[in-house]
Amino acid sequence: KQWYQRRVRGAVANCSKAETLTAIQSAKDCFKTFKGSLHASRAKLLTDWADLIIKHGQDLAILVTQEMGKPLSESIGEVNYATSFLYHFAGQIKTGLTGDVLTPAYKHWRPINIRQPVGPVVTITPWNFPVAMVTRKAGAAIAAGCSVINAPSEDTPLVSLMLGRLAIEAGFPPGLLNVIPSTIENKRTIGSILCSHYDVAALSFTGSTPVGKLLSSQCADTVKRVHLELGGNAPLIVFESADLDRAVNGSMLAKFKNAGQACNAANRILVHKSIYGEFMEKLSKKVAKLKMGNGLDKGVNVGPLVNHKALEKVSSIVDRTLAESSNNVEFMSFDEYKRDGHPFCVPSILSCQENSHLPVFHEEIFGPIAAVYSFSSEAEAVEMANNTRYGLQAYVFTRDLSQSWRVSESLEYGMVAVNEGAISSANNPFGGWKESGIGREAGHLGIDEFTEDKLICFGL
C-alpha cells in the first residue's frame, strides 16, 4: 500500500508451501550448472543487472517511496547504493576465489586449499532498504557461484519483484534468482520450510534479533551456514574536544535518515556534560527544520513510518519512558506527535541527561526520536555505550587522535564510525557483535559467507 495516499499500489502473489518448494527445486537445478560458470560470466551478469537497475532507477526509487515511505531523494540514493554492491562484487570475482598453497607435513605431500560455492542460498530481506539489501546479499552469493531464493518483506514485495524482472532482462538463467513474496502469516510457513530443507545450503537474514534467533534455531537441524544482520542500539558519543557542528550534523544523519528506521541508527546520543547544553541547542534547531510529509513531495526529508504497528512501537517507548521519569526527562517535539491517521512520527528529542536506566536507553527505537544523555568521563561513556546486548555500530566524535583510537578499541561493536555519521559502502564490511548478528556483508568479506573451504592434498 501507499500509506500516505491510502490507496493500493499493486497486487502480488501470496506464496506459501507449494511455491516455496518450487523455488527450492528451481534454485537447486540452476546451481548444478551455475556453480561451474566462469567468474567473468558471473561478473557480466552482475554488471548487466546493475546497469538495468540504474536505467530504471527513477521508477524503482518511486516504487520504494510508494511502498515504504522514505523521501524520494533517499530512495534515489538507495538505488545508487544498491548498484555499488553489484559492481563491487563483479570486480572482486574477476580476480577469482583465491585459495592457498599450504606447507606440506610430509615430503611427498602437496596440500592446497580452494574455495567453492556453498549451494542454493536463501536471502530474507527487510523493508527499510528493500533494494540495497537484495543486491548486497544476492550479489555476493551469485558472485560466489550460488543460486538465490529471495523472500522479501511483506511491506515491500514490489521492489523485489521489479529487481527480479530486471535480472531476467539482464540474462539471468532460470532459477538463479527466485522471488517468493508473501504475507507475514505465510512467511512463517515459508521460513520454516526454507530453514529445514536439505537442499538449502545457507541462510542470510536481515531483520530483528528475535526473528533471527528463531531462524537460526530452525536451521540447526540441517546445520546450515547462517548469516544474520540483526538489531542495534547504536551509541553516538560526543566528547568535549569534538567539532560540535560536525557532531550535530553527524547526529542528524545517523539518527534521522530513513526516519530513524535503520539497524545502525544512532539510538543513544551520549554528550559530555560540559558541552551538553550547547549541543542540545544546535541539535534542536536542526531537528525543528526537518520537513515531514509525503516522500514524493519536494523538500520532504522525513516520511511516514512503514506502518501503524511501527508507530505504535515508537509511541510506546516514548510514553513508557516519560511515565517512568517525567520529572527528569524533557520531551522536545516540534509538532503534534501523531498525524491525521497516517503513520507519521514527528522528529523529536528526549533530553534524558544522566538517566540511562530508562526504556528508551535499552530498546531499539526505530523511529525519528533522538534520545540524548550526558556523561562525565571517557570511562563512563564507554561503559554506557557497551551497556547493551547489541553490538552493531557505534559513532565517536572527538578531535583527540589517541582518544579516538582508544575508545574505538574499547567499544564492543562490529563497526565504529569516527567523526562520521555514515560509513556504509560496498567496500566496507558490514556486521555486528553480540546479539546484532553473525558474519559480514560487503567489502572483502561478503563473498566469503557463501563459499566453503576445501582441502585437496596430492600425494606424489
Query: How widely separated are the two ends?
Result: 66 Å
If you compute it from the alpha carbons, what radius of gyration comes out, rounded to the nearest whole angstrom? 23 Å
- Fraction in helix: 40-55%
For the largest beta sheet, what order do the strands appear in spatially?
10-11-12-9-8-14-15
Write up this protein.
The protein has 460 residues and is of the alpha/beta class. The chain is 41% helix and 18% strand. The strands form four sheets. It has a seven-stranded mixed beta sheet, sandwiched between helices. β11 (348-353), α12 (359-362) and β12 (369-375) form a beta-alpha-beta unit. It is globular. It starts with 16 loop residues before the first helix and ends with a strand. The relative contact order is 0.14.
What labels describe this entry?
18 strands; single chain; 14 helices; alpha/beta; 7-stranded mixed β-sheet; 460 residues
